[in-house]
Amino acid sequence: MSTPNATTAIKPRRLVLDMPEYHPPLAGRNALRLDFNENTLAPSPRVLDRLRQVTAEDLTKYPEREPVERKVAAHLGLDPAQVLLTNGVDEAIHLICCTFLEEGDEAIVCTPSFFMYDVSVSMMTRGLVRIQADETLEFPFERFLAAINERTKLIIVASPNNPTGATVTRAQMLAIANAAPNSVLMADEAYFHFHGETVLDDLASTPNLVVARTFSKAYGLANLRLGMLVGNAEVMSYLRKTSSPYNVNGVALDCLSVAIEDDAYIAWYAEQIRVGRERMMAGLSELGVGYFPSAANFVLMKIGPLHKELVAAMRRRDVLLRDRSADPGCDGYVRITIGVGDQVSQGLEALKASFEEIGWKPQRGFSTTESKTPREFE
Predict the structure, then answer these.
(1) 3-state DSSP: the chain helix, strand, coil percent, rounded to 5?
(2) 315 contact partners, CB below 8 Å, separation of at least 6
(3) Which domains does the chain carry?
(4) Do the beta carbons of residue 333 and residue 327 sit within 8 Å?
């Protein structure tokens, strides 16, 4: 008697079938990594020192997250009950959605932005509301505010935003939180260190505000998968309940405990990126490349129809870029991560040579000058 094929009989929830998938193009990255907004150099030297001290017995133990959460809380001047460490910001987004969204609820995001918002929200509800930015790619504050209603249960705003580099002011962020007191507002500050403006100090007066941070960017710990959520203690207790108690591995926790102590290294690296960002934008202007002023560790360029050819030509020169043409409103756009020192020079030299190879010319109808909006991050 034949057995039915189990793969045809078992199905997941309907929302899982319908949700989008995220496929990061991570294969073959043995080149200058100007594609994923990672730290392009190294973490603090203290991290490598700590890794060398890991013993075989250490690997046999279940990780203890709470002692390191206490250290992070003290570093930020917060109560430990306000801090939850996560397996990268990806898990933080997942936990927010699982904890606060039910079918029929609405969640508001701005597009283009980090695609994992769409993935995690769509797993819980069909009520994903996308507010599309206009051609300036600046945050559509008024339309975003107007989308809030009684069904809104979650709002996610990134500042600086990926892939645009645009920012949302503190006043705008608080206005959104105040307009939706029954909703959770997650302020994604993954690129905080390259911008400097935060709403972390507003947590006490804004109970529905949760701040997400990552240790993958300035801290250079992307491979260890470390992020965090910070917010009102009661709100955080719900997220802690949803989270696995062993979601962050012990090696990552050990490394984080020393990485947060090296403020001098983080300040140095962030300054390298700020200087490199200005050099990159000035270099792009000289090449006639349209771009969007950025407060993050990357710049979004408008390349046009030859965007795929540019990415391929740069790879041949051992420099990786990220094609963002699939993002809403970003057709023909390519993102370049800001490296340190000579990495910026290498990126610009490779761009010039690649443009010549593919026959690229400056595009009409797209200014290479900066936005008229004041750049508050300077």
Answers:
(1) 40, 15, 45
(2) 31, 321
(3) 8-38+264-358 (3.90.1150.10), 45-262 (3.40.640.10)
(4) yes
User: Using an 8 Å Cβ cutoff, are 328 and 111 in contact?
Assistant: yes
**Identity (one letter) of the amino acid at 158?**
A
Q: 10 Å Cβ neighbour count for 350? A: 22
Positions in the chain short of pLDDT 70: 1-7, 24-27, 364-378
Check the CA dihedral 246-247-253-257 and report its sign. negative
| SS3 per residue for 210-238 | EEEEECCCCCCCHHHCCEEEEECHHHHHH
C-alpha 151/C-alpha 137 separation (Å) is: 26
Token pair 């006043």 is found at 171
Directed axis angle between helix 66-76 and helix 250-259, to 10°? 20
What is the pLDDT, as a whole number, of residue 376?
Answer: 25
pLDDT for 365 equals: 55
Burial of 56 (0-12, 13-18, 19+ CB in 10 A): exposed
pLDDT at 5: 57
Distance CA(84)–CA(69), nearest Å, equals 7
Q: What is the DSSP letter of 288?
A: T
Contact between 75 and 260 (Cβ < 8 Å): yes
Summarize pLDDT for 252-293 with one digit per residue, the tens. Answer: 999 999 999 999 999 999 999 999 999 999 999 999 999 999
pLDDT value of residue 375 = 23
Could you tell me the pTM of the whole model?
Answer: 0.91
CB atoms within 10 A of CB 219: 24
pLDDT of residue 36: 93
CB atoms within 10 A of CB 370: 12
Q: For residues 333 and 323, what is the distance between their CA atoms, to the nearest angstrom? A: 6
Give every strand in the sheet of 322-323, ordered side by side. 290-292, 298-302, 333-337, 322-323
